Amino acid sequence: MERERADLAARYERYLACCNERRFDELDEFVSEQVNGSTPVDGRSAYIDGIRAVCTAFPDYHWDLQELVIEENTIAARLIGRGTHTGPFGGVAPTNRTISTQELVIYRFADGKIIQSWGDLFPVVREALTAPAPVTATSSGQVSGRGAQPAGD
């Protein structure tokens, strides 16, 4: 049992490396043709298109694995994703904002491939992009940030 868990963890880490290194043509090795889950369209092509969409909108996006829990053929992964929004994403025009998000994903594997995936990346990223920018003050007293108004105005 421990050996199978270690093998599945190693397989997932190789999958994540393919995503981070933009080796989309190698994802067939990790994703079933019939994969389904969080996206409105099922299938490997749609799944890979979703990953491409993230990497197109955030060319420097990188997933860092924080925690991995494995139970039989199921993985729960907690990831931190970081990137700069330079292309359209989910109906949001480029903001040039750098975001950091926490993503939670549950994967189910069969025959060494992802057959189901439930995650919250797209809504979490959209929320990060549409939230007001943090308000910061400079040493000269100027205030900046989306929607920020200088004090006293």
Q: Structural class of the helices, strands and pairings? A: alpha+beta
Number of DSSP-assigned strands: 7
Q: What is the helix tally?
A: 3
What are the segments in which pLDDT stays under 50 over at least 5 consecutive residues?
140-153
- What would you report as the Rg, rounded to the nearest angstrom? 18 Å
General form: globular
Average pLDDT confidence is 87
Q: Biggest sheet: strands, sense, closure?
A: 5 strands, mixed
Task: State the strand order across the main sheet.
Answer: 1-5-4-3-2
Question: Order of SSEs, N→C?
Answer: HEHEEEEHEE
Q: What percent of residues are in strands?
A: 25-35%
Helix content: 25-40%
Instruction: State the end-to-end distance.
Output: 66 Å
Descriptive overview:
This protein is an alpha+beta fold and 153 residues long. Helices cover 28% and strands 34% of the residues. The protein is built from three helices and seven strands. It has helices at 2-20, 44-57, 121-130, and strands at 31-37, 62-71, 74-84, 98-110, 113-119, 136-137, 143-144. It has a five-stranded mixed beta sheet with strand order 1-5-4-3-2. A two-stranded antiparallel sheet has the order 6-7. Strand 2 and strand 3 form a beta hairpin. It starts with a helix and ends in a 9-residue tail after the last strand.
